[in-house]
Design a protein that fits this description.
- The complex is a heterodimer.
- Chain A is an all-alpha fold.
- Chain A is about 75% helix and about 0% strand.
- Chain A has a two-stranded antiparallel sheet with strand order 1-2.
- The longest helix of chain A has about 30 residues.
- The longest helix of chain B is centred in the middle third of the chain and has 20 residues.
- Chain B has a 6-stranded mixed sheet, with helices on both faces.
- Chain B is globular, with a radius of gyration of 19 Å.
- In chain B, α3 packs across α5, α3 packs parallel to α6 and α5 packs across α6.
- Classes of the chains: A mainly alpha, B alpha/beta.
- Chains A and B meet through α7, α8 and α9 of A and α2, α3, α4 and α5 of B.
């Protein structure tokens, strides 16, 4: 069992505190609340993508497909079968897990690049089915999605945000546990060297399917949270462009680093809000971002921050030692 | 003790090239069996056929009475054959200890759902896997390097780490593919001692080795391959003087000296 560094604990505590407190002040502002909820959803997507690429060395350009399946499955169950939100959510997550398990089959046969292409194709197929089916409301999508109720009352934006935050923490917790277990080690072994992993008795196909299904389930969960916040869904939101955006979130923070995954999701997720005037060029910016980060910071944007913190830590330790030494000197004097 | 591994007319063809040609070989439980031969003789190919990386084109590989010719690599590992690689295949970004813990994969009982809930059993398993891995690192004299990244270790230590990782499977048979390659003389002496220790612990060893001092020094039986065919087999002292073997290594005329 690895020990979590004190520094990591402090960073987690501060981040969590900010995530809890800041929205209290902005609870009346719908725009900010929607941005914060979306950032939570992005963290789920980015973290799952980080698990897939960073730890198991696979790729998916089809995550938005599962994001869409999650959204539509939960909404349809809630609206057509009059089920409560939570039932819709669980149904969508389980469904995405199962579909992910079946559709993850190419992952066991194809190498990185072809897997990327085939999952992108998968995404397009899912999107086309949604657009062309009467059942899913066709191209015009589904409107009038009921709001999620808490104790019989519709949730406020702040309450919805906190619910999202709980799911974010749950996903991160699950990722952390997976990474620090036999399963995580098996995934890292497959990424590191498949031949050696297999010689250690690791059933590569089984683990590839498993991680693919888990990531799909997480994508589905994000889709549910998205649909019931916006309360209007349309196939447009689940294109390969979205998959590409999710890929960016998973990559730029730092592959194979959970904290990096969160940071990458926040940066890539918040970016469009700061660059509203350039929204036409969104995909160009994401593309550039990937190229620049991979070229100049292959360990992700989290890496220079870590190095900076290392220096700061040393400086503080040095200063403390000096002060201590000074004190003993004074005493002697 | 009896035969632990047997190949029956094991053959491997890559297109028109026959890399391993009808090789019959028997390995007795408990012995150190060396596989020798010039470059390109088919030694590593035979290793890959035994360990499930290749499926023999024809012929059979029998391990403890089971036909494992068509078994895949992870299934062969589960049956109790551990191996190292000629070209060192470690998980470079992970610590030495994590590398060995990956070798404990099959011996660690951690169902995923339980892992997520971090139950006492999972914690116990994790602790014992780490404990056992550290012991194995001690066993190959790498106790001090447990937390170093595998990729940062010097060449000789990487080879030893591969052995520790393969031992983590608790195999009944260990395949070592040129473990002394790139080692200096004192490191190879250390390696020979470790190999003897493993043999004394009851693990059968099949070893490919170019370093003659190492190969002849530790093996009970030697099989020599050339151009994919078995040309000699027996105790090292006899095989060393076999004209066919000398010819394979030195060319025609070498035997006259």
């Amino acid at each position: 069992m690895k020990k979590v560094k004190t520094r990591t604990k402090i960073i987690i505590a501060i981040t969590l505190l900010l995530a809890i407190v800041i929205p209290i002040f902005t609870r009346e502002n719908r725009y900010y609340m929607d941005v914060f909820i979306m950032l939570g959803i992005y963290v789920i997507l980015g973290a799952s993508m980080n698990l897939l690429i960073g730890y198991s060395g696979q790729i998916s350009l089809g995550t938005a497909g599962f994001y869409g399946i999650g959204a539509y499955a939960s909404v349809l169950l809630v609206m057509k079968a009059n089920m409560p939100f939570l039932v819709g959510l669980i149904f969508a997550v389980v469904l995405c897990f199962l579909i992910g398990y079946v559709l993850g089959f190419p992952a066991t046969k194809l190498n990185f690049i072809f897997l990327g292409l085939s999952t992108a194709g998968l995404n397009t197929i899912i999107q086309l089915i949604i657009t062309n089916s009467q059942f899913t409301g066709g191209a015009s999508g589904i409107t009038g999605i009921p709001s999620v109720k808490l104790f019989g009352e519709p949730m406020t934006k702040l309450q919805y945000y906190y619910m999202t935050l709980i799911f974010v923490l749950l996903v991160l917790f699950i990722c952390y546990r997976i990474v620090n277990s036999k399963t995580g080690r098996a995934l890292m072994a497959i990424k590191g060297n498949p031949i050696a992993a297999s010689a250690m008795g690791i059933n590569i196909n089984r683990y590839k399917l498993l991680v693919f299904a888990i990531v799909s389930a997480m994508g589905g969960l994000a889709g549910v949270l998205y649909a019931f916040n916006i309360r209007y869904i349309q196939a447009e939101a689940f294109t390969t462009n979205m998959s590409f955006k999710i890929l960016t979130m998973g990559i730029i923070g730092g592959m194979g680093d959970l904290g990096g995954g969160v940071l990458g999701s926040l940066v890539a997720g918040a970016l469009p809000e700061f660059l509203r005037d350039l929204s036409k060029y969104q995909m160009t910016i994401y593309g550039l971002l990937i190229v620049l980060v991979l070229r100049f910071m292959p360990k992700g944007i989290v890496h220079p921050i870590q190095l900076g913190l290392d220096k700061l830590e040393q400086a503080i330790a040095g200063a403390l030692a000096k002060r201590k030494a000074g004190k003993t000197k004074n005493k002697e004097g | 003790m009896g035969t632990i591994l047997k190949t029956e007319a094991a053959t491997m063809q890559f297109g028109g090239l026959t890399a391993v040609d009808h090789v019959d070989m028997e390995i007795q439980a408990g012995e150190v069996h060396a596989l020798l031969g010039p470059n390109g003789a088919g030694k590593t190919t035979l290793f890959n056929m035994i360990s499930g990386i290749y499926t023999p084109t024809s012929g059979r590989v029998i391990f403890q009475g089971n036909d494992i010719s068509k078994k895949r690599s992870f299934e062969v590992a589960a049956l109790g054959i551990g191996r190292t690689f000629q070209n060192i295949l470690l998980f470079d970004d992970l610590s030495a200890c994590d590398n060995v813990m990956i070798g404990r994969h099959l011996k660690t009982k951690q169902p995923l759902v339980e892992s997520i809930f971090w139950t006492p059993r999972i914690r116990r398993e994790e602790k014992s896997a780490r404990q056992r891995s550290l012991e194995l690192l001690e066993y190959v004299n790498l106790g001090a390097d447990a937390e170093k990244k595998a990729g940062s270790l010097p060449y000789g230590k990487k080879r030893l780490l591969e052995i520790a990782r393969a031992l983590a499977l608790e195999p009944s048979m260990l395949l070592l593919d040129e473990p002394a390659a790139g080692m200096n003389p004192s490191e190879s002496v250390e390696l020979m001692e470790i190999i003897r220790k493993i043999r004394n612990d009851g693990i059968t060893i099949l070893i490919v080795e170019h370093n003659m001092r190492v190969a002849m020094g530790i093996s009970d039986v030697v099989t020599v391959l050339n151009h994919g065919q078995k040309i000699a087999e027996g105790v090292p002292e006899v095989v060393q003087h076999d004209p066919a073997v000398i010819e394979a290594y030195l060319g025609k005329g070498g035997a006259r000296q």
